[in-house]
Amino acid sequence: MPLPEGGWLLIQGGVLAGAGTGGGPRAVPDAPRTAVVLQPASRADLLPVLLALYGLTARERQMAELLISGHGTDRIVRTLGISQHTVRDHTKAIFATVNVVSWAELTAVLSAEVSGPVQVGPDHAMGPCPASVGIAG
Fold first, then answer.
1. What InterPro entries does the record tag this protein with (predicted)?
2. Distance between CA atoms of residues 5 and 58, nearest Å
């Protein structure tokens, strides 16, 4: 969820195991209880979601995370067990999907999105990234 001052809020929830409602006449001993945690979202929390919002495939998301982390072609080849040709093909597909032409531009666009909702200017032909309208939808 985007924050008005920039950045994102991470909302996590889950059912607490074995938590009844306590005593009293209206108590339901085995009723499930839910915990909700709100915290500022880190870059590591947001990047996979943002890449998915761009519509990248699972392999392209893996590659994009490695590219953004500064890994070169040789390291990506070793890490993912794919050829240099495949790395180049995935890189081209990622750049085309995000509408960038370089690793530096990819990093800049995604970093801006991670920092908070942004309106991408007219020089960025794709227009606003899907995340600009809010991850929480």
1. Sig_transdc_resp-reg_C-effctor (IPR016032), Tscrpt_reg_LuxR_C (IPR000792), WH-like_DNA-bd_sf (IPR036388)
2. 31
